[in-house]
Amino acid sequence: VREHRHSRRLTGLIAKYDPNARDSDPHKTIIVARLPYDLSEGHLSREFERFGQIRSLRIVKDAKTGRSRG
């Protein structure tokens, strides 16, 4: 039963996946981990703008708490 639920959920997520969403290029994407929980998108943007223009930036947040996932 549990495997069946997982399989259905995974199938649904795959069906919704759009690799072209948000007009992002995976070859120009940087993933940064272990960020301080209180870091703002503005501060992070300022740090990376030293190296060039930032097209898009987002800090991933926990869906339940709304808090940064660090």
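^ that was protein a. below is b, sequence first then the tokens
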Amino acid sequence: SGATVLDTEDTASRMSRIGHRELYFSDYTSVDDYLGKIATVTLHDVGQVAEQLLIEPYIVGLVGPTSLKG
């Protein structure tokens, strides 16, 4: 949220954010509304999402050597 507030100080960044919201979501959310939504997130909400993410099996992909030689 700190980066979002700082983005409002730069006209190009602000216009980019507004354009992105319009193109991808067909709406505009003011910085105050955005920060208000973030402020309503509770520790319980975060815990629920963490449980959902951590309970699912996951796949790890590695790129590089397949052996660990000193």
